[in-house]
Design goal:
Layout (H helix, E strand, L loop, with lengths): L9 H8 L1 H12 L10 E2 L7 E2 L4 E2 L1 H11 L6 E6 L5 E5 H17 L8 E4 L4 H13 L3 E3 L6 H11 L3 E5 L1 E4 L2 E4 L1 H8 L8 E5 L13 E3 H7 L9 E2 L3 E7 L7 E6 L1 H14 L9 E3 L6 H13 L4 E4 L10 H9 L3 E4 L1 H10 L2 H4 L8 E5 L5 H11 L6 E4 L33 E4 L10 E7 L9 E2 L3 H9 L6 E9 L5 E6 L3 E4 L2 E4 H9 L4 E11 L3 E10 L1 H5 L7 H12 L8 E4 L13 H8 L15 H10 L6
Parallel strand pairs: 4-17, 6-7, 6-8, 8-11, 11-12, 16-17, 16-18, 18-19, 19-20, 29-30
Antiparallel strand pairs: 1-2, 3-13, 4-5, 9-10, 14-15, 15-23, 21-22, 22-24, 24-25, 26-27, 28-29
The protein binds adenosine-5'-monophosphate-propyl ester (PRX).
């Protein structure tokens, strides 16, 4: 790197000698407070920790207003790139005008501090404006990924008891408009939800059914709203957003994040890990705003640092497989943050595609979502980074709010495949089954031994589930659900989930969620789902189903069934949860206590010799499944 890194080694020293003092400094350096906090951490009600609790601030003012006040109104906040090729640059000044109008428009619909607002939106400038406007008025936003089904949307709206939904008429997906508004209508059908209004952003055009008295066009509401809005400071622990994520049971968990600690964590990590140079960088986090990566590193982290970012609406192969590299070349992107599954896809498409573009503006690369295998790391480094860009592999979760384990560019000697070291102020350990800390070169479970500012504050409406899920396995410590290895140098290597959560293309999907969707189909009696290793997507979903006898007696076309069931799951949850294959079996391997042995099914799905079957109630089951598998028809 040409310049000295933004993060310096003394950060580690400061954090190690006085962890809370360090976070207090980070909160003061990265965030503006209307009322200074006097205490960094309140742990009286652990694990319900409170950070900077008597401080007061406004998240939107921190992300936008203060930069305009500092004379940065003309700096571009976002270069928007639409999938059809339309572009727009939004400056901090423009964003300031828009968030004020939007805050007024949302308040005019009767929404105030504490009211939940669900956003079912793709990557649009209006989506970011809507998030910030909610933050400005203290109304927690809850984004639902725009690829989710109406049923998944409804579950989340109901759980959050949202009063307002913000959506778009449609999104551009793979070269064609895909309607979004009908899914909102379906989710609200029956009128049993808490929702009073729906704001609709115009994106794709065409006919949209608007419900009289309920639905309002976003552009009309903003045009009618006053251009200035005075922001109020809120308590540091004011809820900022709820983001639903998959857990080990069927119902998604509403992960709650609050204001002061979260902003401190994402601002500091964006600055240090991305070596942020806001005057010159063009930063591109190629995620969707509907996931935590989008929240923390498209929206809050970069904006708090007054950075210029790219916001891309579409997929990497629309209109063709060079789309990313055209964007990098045209906009002079300096930092690219993406997922290993995308990198492996680029590898598959061939290095001649990026090589046809000038990527010399890039100076730093990032990876998130799953471990990056050394082969993909080296390709990313050589082909995309021209051999000169450091790669930061960042481990974190929806629950952690921001990055937790990652190299710091210019400081850490990089090691392909390892997420490497905890961030300054973050304390991790690798422990054994009983929770004993393991020293030296070792393999076990990753735990976080001290609270951190960006941590989740709970599961929306379910304190007990919060305690049980994260704090009971190893009392007093946060259990991340990931296996980890630490090598002799002390570097951390993530080994994947140790629970029933799958990681498909960096998306978290629970086995139970897919199983529930399968058994909701009338022909399915029972289902078991496993994540099997997949070259491109990390894991692929393989489902084993037992059919109902009555369905078999009917006119059911058994050959067409796997395809139907795959579509059924896509409709119930989302296309991202669609099984790679569905296998019809007569029985499932169960222990004597009736628990499905997924380990054995994974052996089959990964085409391995089946492991120890001694705990099965009926050990012949595996032979039957294997025999049935070889007779199964191939799938698309
Ligand atoms: O298993 C880990 C994996 O993704 C999980 C968190 O998923 P989610 O909450 O959807 O957030 C994804 C984006 C932050 C983790 O428990 N994971 C995420 N990043 C990495 C990773 N595994 C290995 N290496 C990573 N860099």
């Amino acid at each position: 790197m040409a310049k000295d890194p933004v993060a310096t080694a003394d950060l580690y020293e400061r954090a190690a000698s006085d962890r809370l003092g360090f976070w207090g400094d980070m909160a003061r350096e990265n965030v503006d407070w209307d009322t200074e906090f006097t205490q960094v951490l309140d742990d009286a009600d652990a694990p319900f920790y409170r950070w900077f609790a008597d401080g007061r601030l406004n998240a939107c003012v921190n992300a936008v207003d203060r930069h305009v006040a500092a004379g940065l109104g003309d700096r571009v906040a976002f270069h928007f790139v639409g999938e059809p090729g339309d572009t727009a640059a939004m400056t901090y000044g423009d964003l300031h005008v828009q968030v004020q109008r939007a805050a007024n428009a949302i308040e005019a619909l009767g929404i105030g501090a504490g009211d939940r607002v669900v956003l079912y939106v793709p990557n649009l400038l209006e989506s970011v404006v809507a998030m910030l406007a909610c933050a400005r008025i203290g109304a927690p936003h809850s984004l639902v990924f725009s690829g989710f089904s109406s049923e998944a949307l409804r579950t989340r709206i109901d759980d959050a008891k949202a009063r307002l939904v913000i959506t778009a008429d449609g999104a551009n997906r793979r070269g064609a408009p895909a309607a979004l508004k009908p899914a909102v209508d379906a989710a609200l059908a029956g009128g049993s939800t808490s929702v009073e209004h729906v704001l609709v952003i115009r994106r794709t055009g065409g006919d949209v059914e608007m419900v009289e008295g309920r639905d309002v066009w976003w552009d009309e509401a903003l045009a009618a709203a006053p251009a200035s809005h005075e922001a109020q400071p809120f308590e540091s622990e004011q809820p900022l957003f709820i983001l639903y994520t998959s857990g080990t049971t069927g119902t998604p968990k509403g992960i709650l994040h609050t204001t002061g600690g979260y902003l401190t964590h994402v601002a500091a990590t964006a600055r240090h890990v991305f070596d942020a140079r806001p005057e010159t960088d063009v930063f591109w986090c190629a995620a969707d705003v509907g996931w935590v990566t989008g929240h923390s590193y498209i929206v809050y982290g970069p904006l708090l640092n007054a950075m210029t970012s790219v916001l891309y609406e579409g997929t990497p192969n629309t209109p063709d497989e060079s789309r990313f590299w055209q964007v990098v070349e045209t906009l002079g992107v300096t930092i690219l943050y993406t997922a290993p599954t995308t990198i492996r896809m680029f590898m598959k498409w061939g290095e001649q595609i990026p090589q046809g573009h000038d990527l010399s503006s890039l100076r730093l690369l990032g990876s998130v979502g799953e471990s990056i295998n050394p082969e993909a790391w080296r390709w990313y480094h050589r082909v995309i980074g021209g051999g000169r860009c450091p790669i930061v592999d960042t481990w974190w979760q929806t629950e952690t709010g921001g990055m937790m384990v990652s190299a710091l560019p210019g400081l850490t000697t990089l090691k392909p495949g390892s997420a490497q070291v905890p961030q300054p102020g973050i304390a991790v350990e690798v422990v054994d089954d009983e929770g004993n800390p393991l020293t030296g070169d070792t393999t076990g479970y990753l735990v976080l031994t001290e609270p951190w500012p960006g941590m989740l504050r709970g599961i929306w409406g379910d304190d007990e589930r919060y305690r049980k899920t994260y704090w009971s396995r190893f009392p007093g410590r946060y259990f991340a659900g990931d296996g980890a290895k630490r090598d002799a140098d002390g570097d951390i290597w993530l080994l994947g989930r140790v629970d029933d959560v799958m990681n498909v293309s960096g998306h978290r999907i629970s086995t139970t969620e897919v199983e529930s969707a399968l058994v909701s189909h009338p022909v399915v009696a029972e289902a078991a789902v496993v994540g099997a290793a997949d070259e491109t997507t990390g894991q692929g979903i393989v489902a084993f189903v037992i059919l109902r006898a009555e369905a078999l007696q009917g006119t059911q076309d058994l050959d067409a069934l796997p395809r139907q069931l795959r579509s059924h799951v896509a409709e119930h949850i989302s296309p991202i949860a669609k099984p790679r294959s569905v296998l019809v079996v007569e029985e499932l391997p169960k222990t004597r206590s009736g628990k499905i042995m997924r380990r054995l099914l994974r052996d089959i799905a990964e085409d391995r010799e089946v492991g120890d079957v001694s705990t099965l109630a009926d050990s012949s089951v595996m032979d039957k499944i294997s025999a049935g598998m070889s007779a199964a028809p191939p799938e698309d």
